[in-house]
Amino acid sequence: MRGTKAAGVKILGKERDNMAARVDEDKCTGCGSCVEVCPVEAITVEEVATINADECLECGACVDECPNEAISLD
Ligand code: SF4
Ligand code: SF4
User: Fold this and answer.
1) pLDDT tens digit string along 33-51?
2) Ligand 2 atom with minimal separation from the 32 CA
3) What is the spatial distance between Cα 50 and Cα 24, in angstroms, rounded to a whole number?
4) Distance from C-alpha of 57 to C-alpha of 48, rounded to nearest angstrom
5) What's the count of helices (H) and strands (E) in the chain, helices before strands?
6) Which of 17, 21, 55, 70 fits 28 for a cystine, CB–CB 3.0-4.6 Å?
7) Contact predicate 17/11, CB 8 Å
8) Is the CB of 62 under 6 A from ligand 1?
9) Domain that holds residue 34
10) Which atom of ligand 2 lies nearest, measured to the CA of 45?
11) pTM of the prediction?
């Protein structure tokens, strides 16, 4: 796995140990567009989007959909 320690990204309160789409909370406006395109319902939105790394397939649909380029895949 690459980037595990260096990234230090927390998703759902735990340290991520697998690759998944990642939300930049400074860019996310909580618009919800990404939720609608995720084929596995891995995204939830409250104030900002959160991606469940255990469910994410890394398909990239949310990355393309986000109007603010707030989601990236490693
Ligand atoms: S990369 Fe695909 S599976 Fe992962 S959160 Fe985005 S839309 Fe869902
Ligand atoms: S589409 Fe982008 S800005 Fe909208 S909720 Fe998803 S990550 Fe946030």
Assistant:
1) 999 999 999 999 999 999 9
2) 5
3) 10
4) 20
5) 3, 6
6) 70
7) no
8) yes
9) 4-73
10) 5
11) 0.79
Q: Which two tokens stand for residue 19?
A: 């690759």
In whole angstroms, what is the distance from residue 30 CA to residue 66 CA?
10
| Ligand 1 contact, 66 CB (< 6 A) | no
5-36 burial, b at 16+ Cβ within 10 Å, e below that, comes to eeeeeebeeeebeebbbbbeeeebeeeeebee
* CA-nearest residue, atom 4 of ligand 2: 31
Residue-level pLDDT at 74 = 76
* CA 65 – CA 70 distance, rounded (Å): 10
The per-residue pLDDT of the chain, averaged, comes to: 86
User: Could you tell me if 74 and 22 are in contact, meaning their C-beta atoms sit under 8 angstroms apart?
Assistant: yes
- What total of structural domains would you count in the chain? 1
Q: Are the C-beta atoms of residues 12 and 52 closer than 8 Å to each other? A: yes
